[in-house]
Amino acid sequence: MNDDASQVDGGDADAQERAALFPPEKRPFFDASRIDGTKNQNVAWVDLMGAKSAMGRSLFQTANFIGKIHTAAFTAAHDREGARVYPVIDGCYITAGQQEIFESVLRTTMLSLANAFVSEEKMSQRFLVRGGIAAGRIIPGAELAKGSNTLQQRAGYKGAVALGTAIGQAYMAEAKAPPFGYFVDITARSFAAGKKQPFTSVYWRWWDDGREKDVRRREIILSELKAYYRWVASNHRGLEYPVAAYEEHRERAFEYFRGGWSDETATNKAEN
């Protein structure tokens, strides 16, 4: 047998061995060309602050916190056309095509969680949440599942996943939000799904619609946050809440809930 024939036979043997070790029929199949398209959506990520340290202290207590976040979001989105909730470990993504519905779901979700905060008398049982907002094209789970027969057969998958850059941008925006507030990514300040205008500020003050009762809610939330952070200052080591972090979060909360811009006029500056 010449060398060339030996190499061919050796190549065939190697291919057969590889096929035996890595059978083609065992490869996961997914074909993205089956996906019909993407959707313009508003996206929010609502998250438990300090989830890692909370789980380290008490898994069951943290389950209470996260369960309340998921419950608040699903309740707020119930029967709201086009609104979807995707629960993920320590928080959830909320999406909606119409901005009016999106804002309503986010407002109701955060109000419910603020209710849990101010109504809890024990500081150790209180928890903080915050959210990030973005906008863009996403692939919802129902579309994604079309790429695989296996995924299509699992109904739960369709409501548990979504893909898109707006998902990641909402996640990153959350880190800049104050406790019980929303930070708006530039995508949602440049573009709005639906017919409404985009958000106009990096902070969306969900409680600010001009009604007297919502002004009073803001005042109560701010008062309770001040009390909570006084408690944190005396217990931050046990909470594993670094001083620099809680001071930054506290100042963001105070700025967010004081009611808007703290503007100085040219006259005031001149007088000072």
How is this structure best described in words?
With 272 residues, this protein is an alpha+beta fold. 52% of the residues lie in helices and 15% in strands. The protein starts with a helix and ends with a helix. The mean pLDDT is 89.
Question: What is the element layout, followed by pairings?
Answer:
Blueprint: H1 3-21, E1 39-48, H2 51-57, H3 59-77, E2 84-88, E3 91-96, H4 99-119, E4 129-140, H5 141-144, H6 149-152, H7 155-158, E5 162-163, H8 165-174, E6 182-184, H9 186-190, E7 203-204, H10 212-239, H11 243-257, H12 266-271
Parallel strand pairs: 4-6
Antiparallel strand pairs: 1-3, 1-4, 2-3, 4-5, 6-7
Oligomer description: single chain
The whole-angstrom Rg is: 25 Å
Fraction of residues in H or I helices: 40-55%
Overall outline: globular
Q: CATH homologous superfamily name of one domain?
A: Nucleotide cyclase, GGDEF domain
How many helices does DSSP assign? Answer: 12
SSE series: HEHHEEHEHHHEHEHEHHH
Strand runs, count: 7
